Structures are given as structure tokens and as C-alpha cells.
From TrEMBL:
Active site residues according to the UniProt entry: 125 (phosphoserine intermediate)
Source taxonomy: Eukaryota, Metazoa, Chordata, Craniata, Vertebrata
Known EC number: 3.1.3.1
Enzyme class of the recorded protein, top EC level: hydrolase
The protein, known as: Alkaline phosphatase
Chain residues that bind Mg(2+): 75, 186, 188, 346
Cofactor binding, per record: Binds 2 Zn(2+) ions. Binds 1 Mg(2+) ion.
Main location: membrane
Length: 469
């Protein structure tokens, strides 16, 4: 398995993590006493020697060919978020927390990735997704197009399209999938299949009339037309697939969830009709998803909400599947392909819902009462909708521009080793799997692979910081 964790550090995210730790102490868990063994130097020396022995085994590099590619993206998950999650995990198990290990902490290779967009020092999720999926740096707000394309200018699309690693994998005969807790046509997943100069063109209902008339396609339409046979599609965004004013199957009386398409097309029905001679299934709730028999399904389209899926804390566990449940079904379907698979998994909005904080750099949580900072000791940090304080008043918090961490594990993971441009990531993954433009090195003069057999999987875990954008 090949894992790459990219963690974009950002001011907002940093404070968010520190806040979580503060909340744990104030919220009733208390600060546990550290174990007596930590007072003994032998404990630390033994631990360090064990770590050293593990590090020495890495001198023998894994140069196998990766059969499977999995990219995990924690959108909004900076390095401080990882630190706070580690501490929380430990404290929930009765430890002090800092000594705990997350799974990504166990990955043997770590690098840093530079997240800037070509026209923005502080990036957005669209331009960064284009980088780590298509291998090309791009302008903010654009997906699947090069930096020659200008946001919202339809006529700059044609000729500037760039393809993604999902397409490279599909062309190599692998199965491919997208699983997200946001809309399937949101910024991150859309860069895997769409070429659009505006990340907000979810359907033609969100596009300016002149762009539609000029022939530009909305992102939802491109999901089904650009790479017609994506094997697994799961997430939200149901309303963008249905005609304008068509009621939603789950919320029939709520107009804000009605269809948005002005062209009158029903993209779900079109997909179902096109796939009727294949082993394909459309699902829209947890019960339908968990009733799927992976042995009888090769293609699945799951749209579980009109917009984004709710946070795990707030989701209806009877109707909305968890990210874990979606991923488990996805892998069971994808792994049937003997040539392997590529899977993009996104846990979205990691830091859009702060619970505790020492301080946010900026955002709507700025509060001054009679010229003084609000008394934080009187606040309910356990409340689901607790809003963290911020230092600078803004309608919403902003991105940070720091580098993000990349944790790597699997074949060729050692190629992530220092400070890299973000667009380097898919090139490493493609090289490890011998797909896209990185195929020549895999073949010897006799036509056989020059690398070891494709036994392991390669998973890349990107934890990128995306806030309200």
C-alpha cells in the first residue's frame, strides 16, 4: 500500500488544533498524569533504539510496481490538526495523548508539499486539486485546466485542458473510483474528471448564460461525459443532477433541495439507462448502499444528499452512510479488477467546524464585549455548534499558505523525500504504478516489466487544508 499524506499547514488550522487540546482539558476529561515509566531514561532510550532499528530496514527500498492506488485527502487537515487528533485519540483511551500514534504516523516516508496556486500565494481547493490530481499547477478556482485558463472566462477553456491520474489509470485498464463527503462535483473530486474554468459551475443552473451559450459544460455533466465509465462515484450533490424545480427524493417538500438543471436533463436517469446492460446500480441512502452485493455490481453511483453530506457528528445514521462505509463498499467493487484500481477518497471540511480553539487567526468568531475579549471560561466547548474565537473579524476564515506534510508508504514511496511542488505527487504515484507518461521505465527491451511484480498497493493520503472556499 502506498500512502501519501499531504497536510497543508494554515493559520486557521493551527489554532483549531491547539483549541481542541485546550477543550479536552476544560471539557471534563482532565489532564492525565504521565506514566511512571516515562520518568525512567531507559524507557526513552529503548523506544528510540526500536525506532532506529525500524528506520534501518528502510535502506532496502520497495521498488515493486504498485497495483492499486488510493489517494486519501483530508480537506482542511493541517499538521496541527494531525497533532490534535493524535492527542485526542490518546486522551480518549485514558493516556496523556501525546505518545499515541495515528496510522499515518507509522508511514515510513515524510515530505512537504508547496500548495500555492500559480496566481495565488494562499491556494484554494480547486487549483490544488488540479495539482495533486493532474500534475500541473493551476490558477485558483479552476479545475482540470492549466494556468493559461482564466477563472470564469469560458473561452479560455479549450486547448488548456489537462488530464488526471484517474484518467491515466482508467486508460491503463484499472478500475477507478471517487468517494467524498462533499458534492461529487465539488472542487476536489471535480479535478479528477472535469475541465472547468470555474469551480462553482456545479450545474448549468449556476453558470452565466453566456458561458452556456459559448459551449462550456457544467461540472455535473462532465462527471458523466468526460470519463463515461467511472466505476465508483459516491458522495453528495444530488440536486445538480436533476431538472430545475424537481423535488428531491429524500426532502420532497424542501425547495432548497430541488433540482437545479435548466437544461431539463436528468443525469441520474441517463446514467442508469446507459448502464442498463452492465452490472450497475444507483443508490441514494445507507440502506441501499449496504445492501449492494459487490460480486454482482461493477459500477455504482451513490448520491446521498442534495448537497454536501452532513458532518459525521450530525449525520442521520439511519439514512446517511459514513465515509468508512462508502469506502468499504467501493474497495470491494474495485478490487475485483485483476489490473488493480485507483481510488480518490476525500473527507471534506475537516476544519470548517471548529469545536475548541486557543485562537483562530481570523473568521466570524471575533468577539469583543465592552472593549474586552469574551470570557472564554464561561463558554460551552462541548456544544456541537460551538464557534471558536478569532483574532481578526472576517465573515469566514481563510486558507493558510504553509507547506503541507506528505506521509508516504508503499512501492516507490521513497520518491517523496523532501520539499516538493504539489503537482509532483501524481507523477510519483503514476511512476509507481507504471501508468500515464511513466510507463517506459517499466518495460525492458524484451517487453517484460523491469520492475518487480505488481503485488502491493499504493495509497496516497493527502490531508489538505481547505476552509470555507
Amino acid at each position: 500500500m502506498w500512502y501519501v499524506t499531504v497536510v497543508p499547514g494554515n493559520t486557521t488550522t493551527m489554532t483549531f488544533f491547539l483549541i481542541i487540546c485546550s477543550c479536552l482539558a476544560w471539557g471534563g476529561l482532565g489532564k492525565p498524569q504521565f506514566p511512571d515509566q516515562e520518568k525512567d531514561p531507559l524507557f526513552w532510550n529503548t523506544w528510540a533504539q526500536h525506532t532506529l532499528k525500524n528506520a534501518l530496514t528502510l535502506q532496502k527500498l520497495n521498488q515493486n510496481t504498485a497495483k492499486n492506488l488510493i489517494l486519501f485527502l483530508g480537506d482542511g487537515m493541517g499538521i496541527p490538526t494531525v497533532t490534535a487528533a493524535r492527542i485526542l485519540k490518546g486522551q480518549l483511551s485514558g493516556q496523556s495523548g501525546e505518545e499515541t500514534q495515528l496510522e499515518m504516523d507509522k508511514f515510513p516516508f515524510v515530505a512537504l508539499s508547496k500548495t500555492y496556486n500559480t496566481n495565488a500565494q494562499v491556494a484554494d481547493s480547486a487549483g490544488t486539486a488540479t495539482a495533486y490530481l493532474c500534475g500541473v499547477k493551476a490558477n485558483e478556482g479552476t479545475v482540470g485546466v492549466s494556468a493559461a485558463a482564466v477563472r470564469s472566462q469560458c473561452n479560455t477553456t479549450q486547448g488548456n485542458e489537462v488530464t488526471s491520474i484517474l484518467k491515466w489509470a482508467k486508460e491503463a485498464g484499472k478500475s477507478v473510483g471517487i468517494v467524498t463527503t462533499t458534492r461529487v462535483n465539488h472542487a476536489t473530486p471535480s479535478a479528477a474528471y472535469a475541465h472547468c474554468v470555474d469551480r462553482d459551475w456545479f450545474s448549468d443552473g449556476e453558470m452565466p448564460a453566456e458561458a452556456v451559450q459559448a459551449g462550456c459544460k457544467d461540472i455535473a455533466r462532465q462527471l458523466f461525459e468526460n470519463i463515461p465509465n467511472i466505476d465508483v462515484i459516491m458522495g453528495g450533490g444530488r440536486k445538480y443532477m436533476f431538472p430545475k424545480n424537481q423535488s428531491d427524493v429524500e426532502y420532497p417538500g424542501d425547495k432548497k433541495h430541488f433540482g437545479t438543471r435548466k437544461d431539463g436533463r436528468n443525469l441520474v436517469e441517463e446514467w442508469t439507462n446507459r448502464m442498463k446492460n452492465k452490472k450497475a446500480q444507483y443508490v441514494w441512502n445507507k440502506r441501499e448502499l449496504l445492501s449492494v452485493n459487490p460480486n454482482n455490481v461493477d459500477y455504482i453511483l451513490g448520491l446521498f444528499e442534495p448537497g454536501d453530506l452532513p458532518y459525521n457528528l450530525e449525520r442521520n445514521t439511519e439514512t446517511d452512510p459514513s465515509l468508512t462505509e462508502m469506502v468499504e463498499v467501493a474497495i470491494k467493487i474495485l478490487r475485483k479488477n485483476p489490473r488493480g484500481f485507483y481510488l480518490l477518497v476525500e473527507g471534506d471540511d475537516v476544519d470548517q467546524k471548529p469545536f475548541t480553539a486557543i485562537l483562530y487567526g481570523n473568521g466570524p468568531g471575533f468577539k469583543v464585549i465592552n472593549g474586552l475579549r469574551e470570557n472564554v471560561s464561561t463558554l460551552d466547548y462541548q456544544g456541537t455548534n460551538y464557534q471558536a474565537q478569532s483574532a481578526v473579524p472576517l465573515r469566514m476564515e481563510t486558507h493558510g499558505g504553509e507547506d503541507v506534510a506528505v506521509f508516504a508508504k508503499g512501492p516507490m514511496a521513497h520518491l517523496l523525500h523532501g520539499v516538493h511542488e504539489q503537482n509532483y505527487i501524481p507523477h510519483v504515484m503514476a511512476y509507481a504504478a507504471c501508468i500515464g507518461q511513466n510507463r517506459d521505465h517499466c518495460m525492458s527491451s524484451g517487453g517484460a516489466s523491469s520492475l518487480s511484480p505488481a503485488l502491493p498497493s499504493l495509497a496516497a493520503l493527502l490531508t489538505l487544508t481547505r476552509l470555507l472556499c
